[in-house]
Amino acid sequence: MNTTIKKELAKYQGQINRVMKLFFDQKLQESGRWSADLKKVVQKTKRFSLQGGKRLRPILFLYGYQAIKSGNVQAVLKAAVSIEIMQSYFLVHDDIIDEDDQRRGSPSLHVVYEKMYRNNFGIKLSIIAGDLLENYALEVLAEADFPSVNINKALKHYYQITKQVNYGQVLDLLSERDEKITEKEIFNILKLKTATYTTTGPLQLGATLAGATENQLNQVAKIGQPLGIAFQLRDDVLGLFASQKEIGKPVGSDVKEGKKTLLIYRAWQASDQKQRKILKKVLGNKSASFKDIKKVRQIVKETGSLKYVNQKIDQHINKSLKMIANSSFRPSPKKFLADLAQFIGQHVL
Amino acid sequence: MNTTIKKELAKYQGQINRVMKLFFDQKLQESGRWSADLKKVVQKTKRFSLQGGKRLRPILFLYGYQAIKSGNVQAVLKAAVSIEIMQSYFLVHDDIIDEDDQRRGSPSLHVVYEKMYRNNFGIKLSIIAGDLLENYALEVLAEADFPSVNINKALKHYYQITKQVNYGQVLDLLSERDEKITEKEIFNILKLKTATYTTTGPLQLGATLAGATENQLNQVAKIGQPLGIAFQLRDDVLGLFASQKEIGKPVGSDVKEGKKTLLIYRAWQASDQKQRKILKKVLGNKSASFKDIKKVRQIVKETGSLKYVNQKIDQHINKSLKMIANSSFRPSPKKFLADLAQFIGQHVL
Known about the structure:
Shape of chain A: globular
Distance between the termini of chain A: 12 Å
Largest interface: A-B, 49 and 49 residues
Strand content of chain A: under 5%
Oligomer: homodimer
Mean pLDDT of chain A: 94
Largest sheet of chain A: 2 strands, antiparallel
Low-confidence stretches of chain A: none
Strand order of the largest sheet of chain A: 1-2
CATH class of chain A: Mainly Alpha
CATH architecture of chain A: Orthogonal Bundle
Order of helices and strands of chain A: HHHHEEHHHHHHHHHHHH
Structural class of chain A: mainly alpha
Number of helices of chain A: 16
């Protein structure tokens, strides 16, 4: 990561983690009053939520607020962990659905519970634990210390975010078995599943608490959507080409799961007979070797798919940068958003 | 069911179903704008939510409102379907967790999706579909046509309800493997899992939208909690002793799943060697026969457990009736609640 962004993120990561820790400690007390066993289950949701993670979403929440209004950092951060806990909720259910055993370099929550309880309790408890994390995320936002009319508006954004992500989840899952998926459908999934809750959602929630106008919220969406799409496309590229250490999960897991990322889709479309034979063998093959993944890397390059996706990232970054420059937001969040966009844009392998 | 209650329920069931249908039709349009496949998935959540069900919860929501304030029935019913959709959310996840293939006499949602898509998509899609139903429930309440300060308070009740139910879900699941469960723990599960969202929650949500005071909300809780506990104990009794037609699911499913209901717990505690041997064989045995279930029925009777649970039901009904009589609520909802309590109390086999 470049130094400006690194510093800016580091400035708040510690504070965000402290606020999260405090919230989860209250939940430990609360659940412990019912039962020590319940508390143990909640304890693992705390650990899962606090381990790893760049805290990008709550930081965007804060900058969304500051785009409209200065000050009140502590109160905003307290509300902003809502989006990080929402992220935990999605990750827990996502890992069950994708049958991912690792997350951020540690075991997924369903693996943790299965070790503790056996009997398929891993998945069963993780369904409920994900649900609980969603309840917690809602609690944090509903109890935030802001005027009730702003909270109400924020809660309307909240359910729109979760709903759109879940729509995207359905489409993403169905895409695994869909032979005739189109590029437009892939972009729909990107919009629904990533842009909404990685960039647009956090920015809009923060801006809403600051009392943003409809016009300002539209500006936020126009900045956030291309930024979020570029972010996910970059993540897809890193997921295939970076090392396990860099990404905190096995390399090529999208490939093994048969996910139709833009990267894979374009490679598939442009592949010749020989290449397609290899892709057929490796895509969706859970026991694919690292050698197989390296073959896929090569095909993604040879077919021009990597180049195409990098161009798409550039286009979306430029769109976002233009909207940032044209926005009526305050200077410091404008600068942060522009730095972030440029970072995502320049992080080329 | 006795005639008064039947009439009173029938009066609103049709209206509630119409409001739900209308809401889901909007969601079909909304999801269809993204993709026809997504719409198909949402269509099944609609069907699942509309089939069967007594709509007791939204009716209690309405009476919770009317306990405080008259009029506004249409607006309240529009908000009240929130709790029915929340119920759908819980049922969908609950059926996955309990591995129940039937619900309200029809296939569970994960069975429906598995038939449509195969590949374990049944459970995967149902996790997301449950999440979506939760988002919908929140949407209905957040968009209700009431003063924003009342909506805000209602949303705080909302997350408390979902959170407590999920706490109860964890305890309920863990109880399956807990040899040393106590009667107190069983009552905790009853409070968290049932009373909250079957009686207290709906009543409080309605009362909150009507602008109830803290004192009035406390009265609601004191009526709702014993009523909800009695309701679930009655449900446990019916689940073992009624016919499949009466309960819309296989008889003795709690027994087959090894659920530690009060009925089973007391029978186990009081059983002699011979009885315990039978219980050991049948409890948690998914392929137990109807003959086995009948043996369990006999033991539940012989050990005095049925009598004990019926006494508990009476005690809780009487407690609730006393609180209803002492409350400062308006006459017509008081009468309905008293009728309902008496119905649950008298429905003896």
